[in-house]
Amino acid sequence: MSDDISAPGGRKVPEGYQILDWTRGFGRQIGPLYRKTWDDGRHTMGMRVEEYHANGMMNAHGGMLMTLADVAWGHVISVEKSSFWVTVRLSCDFLSGAKLGDWVGGGQRDRGR
Predict the structure, then answer these.
(1) Model pTM score
(2) Rounded to an integer, what distance in angstroms lies between the CA atom of residue 1 and that of residue 15?
(3) Rg (alpha carbons) of the chain, rounded to whole number
(4) Which domains does the chain have, with CATH numbers?
(5) What 3-state DSSP class applies to 25?
């Protein structure tokens, strides 16, 4: 768990990403998470894999990756539909892992494609 919502370990965050301002609840425990709004209105979210996000093999824990997917999807719904949301079911198939220190992100695809 994170006790500090600032970027741990002094690792750089990709340009344009701003820290989510969660200061309580579950988001505070898993963070920091970041978001970026692109010039065309798309939104993406991301995180740097830190030790407290990792499993015993020092890869991102699958539950953490699923959490990021859930939060990123929910953010898109919240922004696009101006609506609150609740995840009823989330199913994931992992094609690859993320190692300690990797940047992991996701969000909307290009609107023109």
Answers:
(1) 0.77
(2) 25
(3) 14
(4) 8-103 (3.10.129.10)
(5) helix
